[in-house]
Amino acid sequence: MNVLPFFLCFLLFSTFCSPSLSEHCNPHDKKVLLQIKRALNNPYLLASWDPKTDCCDWYCLECDPTTHRVVSLTMFSDDRLTGQIPSEVGDLPYLETLLFRHLPNLNGTIQPSIAKLKNLKTLRLSWTNLSGTVPDFLSQLKNLTYLDLSFNNLSGNIPSSLSSLPNLEALHLDRNKFTGSIPESFGMFQGKAPDLFLSHNKLTGTIPASLGNMDFNTIDLSRNMLEGDASMLFGSKKTTWEIDLSRNMFQFDLSKVEFPKSLARLDLNHNKIMGSIPPGLTGVDLQFMNVSYNRLCGQIPVGGRLQRFDYYTYFHNRCLCGAPLESC
């Protein structure tokens, strides 16, 4: 009697009917995920998180294709999700991406257990109702390349320890309620200077001179209460793409500034910047520029893209003239 057909039938039956044989999900990770679901009061966003199914097939997460450990947890765009970030997220040791975004009813503080996620590369906690301060323990996450805490209700001082993250490529702290000054250490990032977004806060004081040592690709300090000199952010040898200093109280002589050839976006509106527009700016391939509402004087240099911008780019200055403004 040939037993092969019976064996094959048994194997197929076992595969389809026994979850333990077909499931890839790590048992520890599955247990933690179900705890997270319960902690968030079983939101509709996590309806696919059925304990009878393989967790690697659930929405809002990804498993490593080889180890089958959970490496990404992403929850976003759900007004019905309420509560705080569950402490259990810290029990997913292989997480590389953690995202809670566009969740207006997510409250509380930044969860301390996140400090245990030593493999984390991307942390995005944005567009939520999180409050409190930025904890120093984030500086322990040495593999972080992207840190986004924007559009929250975070307050207090910006911790200087964030500059010790050696692999950071982007730091978003914009649209919060931070006070105090920009840390001196932000001119001494351990690795390459990250894209730095500090706009729409309540930061005061002057820019640390140390920031002049950094070659930021993008730096946005707009809509704060910063003052004094900001010319150290520029330089002909830098490779900066965007500088936004708008709606502060900066005061420096623009005519003495040398601009990077790479600069594509420059926004200086609503400050106390004086001097004239330097001729060197005609050699920069700008896509956007706004120097309105300052104290600039003199003729707008002719050449480059400077005449392609409209009247509103230059208006409300002390005595600027020349196209596209009135002739001198």
TrEMBL record:
Residues 27-64 form the Leucine-rich repeat-containing N-terminal plant-type domain. Its main location: other. The keyword Repeat applies. SUPFAM superfamilies: L domain-like. InterPro entries: Leu-rich_rpt, LRR_dom_sf, LRR_N_plant-typ, PGIP. Gene3D superfamilies: Ribonuclease Inhibitor (3.80.10.10). Residues 1-22 form the signal peptide. It comes from the Eukaryota. Keywords: Leucine-rich repeat, Repeat, Signal. It is found in: Cell envelope. PROSITE patterns: LRR (PS51450). PANTHER family: POLYGALACTURONASE INHIBITOR 1, POLYGALACTURONASE INHIBITOR 1-RELATED. This is Polygalacturonase inhibitor-like. It comes from Herrania umbratica. The gene is LOC110415060.
